[in-house]
Amino acid sequence: MTENVLPASELYTDEFAADPYPAFAKLREDSPVCPVTSPRFDSFLITRFDDAKAALNDPRLSKDLYGPEQHFLRIFGPNSEAINKNMLNSDPPEHSRLRRITSRAFAPRRIEALRPRVAEIVSELLDKVVPQGQADLMHDFAIPLPMMVISELLGIPTADHDQVLAWTQVIRESGSSGRPPAEERAAVQEAQLQLHHYLADVIQAKRAQPPADDMISSLIEACDQDGQLSERELVSTTFLLLFAGHQTTADFIGNAMVALLTNPEQLDLLLRTPELLPSAVEELLRFDGPLPVASPRIATEDLEFRGVRIPAGSIVGVAINAANHDPEAFADADRLDLSRERGPHMGFGHGVHYCLGVTLARIEAQIGIGALLRRLPGLRLALPVEELRRLPAASPFRGLIELPVRFNA
């Protein structure tokens, strides 16, 4: 197969940010394993479902960016080292050890017990906007909901929630402020460092107190008593759980609401048959997920996908959202169909790095979206969909900066 090298400038455009699926369709058809060039690093992008599934389960594609080769320097820059020594950027057996420790806090029974608290937070947030007849669903609902849930689960003091949210939003909205790139990078690095120092301080404060029933206390025990975590791993894992525990869920809720509001027949179906909500959440995640490309992998040896040679040391991106629109995997894949049989979508990843917080994400999405539809009658976009402000196309996340809506107060 001919390798059609694609400059990132041709892929990550404003048009791509608004709707990446035509570009993904063209890549799936013409160059399903496509070399992509960019100023910071070159990579290979995999877009077909079967290839994506195989790649996510291929041990030759390593997630360890912090080994002797120091791949993180190419991808994230030097400031990332302190906050990225965690299970996301590791391979078995290190990944297995870190995931086993962290998964205790995500036991399905414990997460299911959070349903009443999630519903309570949802009600509190909506009580503030219902009388207004209008809202920004991102800043008023989709972002604070999972942030409040994961902060409570971790054991972050309530008085600090707003400051923690402010730091994470600087990181999330990188590239959208309109500031010069160097200034933008400096702001993001400062937010990362501030959040890192803050979490280290929270950990030290908890060490001086009797053990509490929260995730950070459990991780401290694994570090101090069992010796299963290093101090660096402890802080980095806390950072990962905080950021991953709210970012993708917030973006997903925003994407899901846009999908529903721009597909009125599907919205009407869900309003008439609310029992479809659990399967609807799965279809909405397949249709427009918050993580268009899985976090980067490194080829540890020369390998080949669809006749394209990927040399050892290459960065490989698996385009989850492209795979989830593959017509060979899903009938009428570009159509939102809430009555679709639950299929093997990859919205939560695949393989050993399958999302650890899947149960919590589903609970937040089901309760949150259900409440929005119930409590905001006549819900509609306040702007044409093409005018919605989105995260930059080069962002690792697919999400909205704002989601202005109107409804019948």
UniProtKB/TrEMBL annotation:
GO terms for molecular function: heme binding; iron ion binding; monooxygenase activity; oxidoreductase activity, acting on paired donors, with incorporation or reduction of molecular oxygen. It comes from the Bacteria. Gene3D superfamilies: Cytochrome P450. InterPro entries: Cyt_P450, Cyt_P450_B, Cyt_P450_CS, Cyt_P450_sf. Keywords: Heme, Iron, Metal-binding, Monooxygenase, Oxidoreductase. GO terms for biological process: antibiotic biosynthetic process. The keyword GTP-binding does not apply. Transmembrane segments: none annotated. Signal peptide: none annotated. PANTHER family: CYTOCHROME P450 YJIB-RELATED (PTHR46696:SF1), P450, PUTATIVE (EUROFUNG)-RELATED (PTHR46696). Belongs to the cytochrome P450 family. This is Cytochrome P450.
